[in-house]
Amino acid sequence: MKFAVFSSAAFVFVLFALMLLDILVRGGAELTPQYFTGAVSDGGRSGGIGPVVVSTLLVVLMATAFALPLAVAGALLCTELLVHRPASRQLVRRSFEILVSAPSVAVGLIGWSLFGQVFGFGFSLFSGAATLAFMLAPLMALAFLNGLEAVPQALRSQSLALGLTRWDTLVYLVLPAARPALVAGVMLAVGRALAETAVLVLTSGVTTRMPEDIFDPGATLAVHVYNLAHNVPGGESRAYAAAFALVVVNIGVQLLLTRWKPRLANQEATS
Amino acid sequence: MKAVPLPTGAPVESTGRRQEHAFAWALVWVLGIGCAFIAPALLLFLLGKGASFLLADERATLTSLRWSPTEASYGLVPLVVGTLSVALGGLLLALPLGIGTAIALHFYLRGRLREWFEATLGVLGGIPSVVFGLFGTFWLVPRIGASLLSGVCVLAAMLIPTLALLALAAFRQLPTGLVADGLRLGLSREQVILRLVLRSARPALFGAAVLALSRGLGEALAVEMVCGNVPGLPTRLTAPIRTLTTTLVQEFEYAQPLHNRALHLVALAIVLLAALTSAAALRLRERKAA
Fold first, then answer.
1. Contact check, Cβ <8 Å, B248/A108
2. How far, rounded to the nearest angstrom, does the alpha carbon of residue A153 sit from its chain's CA centroid?
3. ipTM of the modeled complex
4. SS3 call for B238
5. Pick from A91, A142, A202, B56: most CB atoms within 10 A?
């Protein structure tokens, strides 16, 4: 028993250590300062990832910006507006949960049909960001929802008893109290957007030219890794380099998130 | 001093100031309802497009064993079988490793070492799935070929951190005295884990497995990179297969209208498979809570 569980744990950790080491050695060998800014040449076999970095920033930024107002409103709908209607609140929450666990490739196909074909944008950063926003909005809304629910109801009733309006209570007391959860929710969404491939292969494409505006196609970093590893013969070493950059950025976001979590817990404990 | 009555039920507020923020609240209502309606709207879109395929004559081919849109044959059976076999295979491989790792961390390690390994597991859980696809492509495919087995291994690697984290969470939820009581009754540590811990945590572990399964069913690119993408029933572990998700990725761009509608039906099938497994997990969680 002890032997069995220790060998499975050892197997798992050695496997992952080997993976990370492989990325570190083979990907790290390709990295130079010019790699992050240079143009992609020869289908990605040489050159840098400058346009990919630009596309990634644009898609992540736009998708988060599109989703943020929807997510905040969705969370407030549950915690402030439907307070006395638990049944509808539960229904709204279920709608968010369904979309968060939905297979992303199905959402990607809808995005391709809707933005790519019906609206005629084809492969574009805008279609990618808009489709991604469908997935990020409920994800962030759920995170915000949990944060807002953790704000004690007494804070709201005390403020209302002192004569503040519901809006002022929300803006000056409830939202500031829930700030760590709001920040964590946004970080969660950014991490998800950075890791997403299925949605973006179907909506913003695998092109690595420098995008001139948001209606141009453009591959994000994760999509670039996929394309180099899968579609570009001889792209192996560069795929590792891009994967190195992707993993470092993702682990960075993860670590920021775990740094926020203890503070969240503290706040719940003290309030 | 006169006592001020506390507001009961609906919040008390002056009507004059309520007007001031009427627009802001209306905006929250509209955007919030919009956000809640994303999921039903997307589902309706998928249903509408997918169902329109059922009006075409080719609907008769849906139950056939052949997916070949160029020959107007849209048999979903091999795709569903491919999806199920790769996801179940990945789960079966990941389950003992994930739960074994969680047992080792939770019951045999102490202090900083355990904290450190748990934190590492959390970070590993955040690795993008495409990275696992990359390792599958360069480690597995040259050795065992683009096949069902490669897909199973890639999915298993992807699911292990999640499963281990969920299993750890399940162990933490157990009553605190369980292990100590078992040991005091004279059971060995091994018996405590096998007979008490795994049995009491069974509903939670089953829920974790179903969650992992639904992730495996929906994973697209990591599987597409290594599974070979030849539609057909898998006869051997080393046979190339094709799943519902990989079909979408391979064919969406060049699909003609009818084929395009068939692809929406494929997407609908993925959503339904994943939803069925999630619903099962939810039922189990509720039954456990009750």
1. yes
2. 30
3. 0.91
4. coil
5. A202
